[in-house]
Amino acid sequence: MFFTLPYEIQEMIMQYTTFYDCINNGYTRIAKKLYYPEYCHLAILNKDYKLLYLLDKYRMFNGLDNFVVHLAINSYNVDIVSLIYKNFPTFFTGQYLDIAASNGCLDIVKFLHKYIKGSTDAMDCASMNGHYETLIWLFHNGYECTAYAFEYATKYNHLDIVKWLHRNKRPYTRNCIDNAVKYGHLDLLKWLHKHKPEEDCSSDSINQAIMLGNSNTVIWMFENRYNDIDVMDAVIYAIKYDKEVILDYICNFIVEKTENKINNKQHRREHTI
């Protein structure tokens, strides 16, 4: 069974092909008559720097708005970004540096930094997406972050970034250790427990970990931070979300803990007598 493109799309493709051939072969007068702003969008999406260079050379960047900047930033190509900036400098605002940082495009961040200034979102989002080098470069070039940087790094398990944020005394919140528990990041949880022992963990994060089936962090919390746990809530969540392995562990843990208490009492009584 053959699929036929609608006539309008076939015509658009043919016109684009004709336009491309004309501008590529120097028939600029014809190319200008055939030009549509969407051709610039297509060139960026296809990372066709040659076509963009010709559009710039023959001054055919017409009828465009700041959507072209969004496309350029997300092309991950600093040459395309610099060409678009050359033609539309007023379209560029700080949010585009933040987006480049979020994408981890350090070359684009460095280029844009010469002309515009981003916000705390730059470091926060670089942290969220695990872009370690971008985060450090931003910090050493005058940028700051909020507590979200630490929270994002713990939520998405970027331990190297968590360590860096800790060393550089960036803002920290209780949500950080909760994230490690909730999302099952055991190595991260152990590190936070060692370096942030004063931070409490909410019982709700244990319940969320149970709901998500992250038995590794649930077991570790029972064995290492039992006082942070509402045991009855934990049992209810394990039953409610049918987490049989976790429920078995909790029941066995309670039985063992109770037996140890009884044995300790007997031992103390015997020594008293």
**Gap from first CA to last CA:** 92 Å
Number of helices: 18
User: Major sheet: size, sense and barrel closure?
Assistant: none
Which sequence of SSEs, written as H and E, runs from N to C?
Answer: HHHHHHHHHHHHHHHHHH
| Portion in beta strands | under 5%
Determine Rg (CA atoms, Å): 29 Å
- Counting helices, strands and paired strands, the structural category is mainly alpha
Portion of residues in helices? 55-70%
Q: Point out poorly predicted stretches.
A: none
Broad shape: elongated
The residue-averaged pLDDT reads 91
For the record, the count of structural domains works out to: 3
- Count of DSSP E strands? 0
Description:
The N and C termini lie far apart (92 Å). It is built from 18 helices and no strands. It has helices at residues 7-24, 28-34, 37-45, 49-57, 67-73, 78-87, 94-103, 106-113, 121-128, 132-140, 147-155, 159-167, 175-182, 186-195, 203-212, 215-224, 231-240, 244-272. The protein is 70% helix and 0% strand. Helix 5 runs antiparallel to helix 6, helix 7 runs antiparallel to helix 8 and helix 16 packs parallel to helix 18 (244-272). By secondary structure, the protein is mainly alpha-helical. It is elongated, with a radius of gyration of 29 Å. The mean pLDDT is 91. It has three domains: 7-88, no CATH class; 93-173, Ankyrin repeat-containing domain (Serine Threonine Protein Phosphatase 5, Tetratricopeptide repeat, Alpha Horseshoe), CATH 1.25.40.20; 177-268.
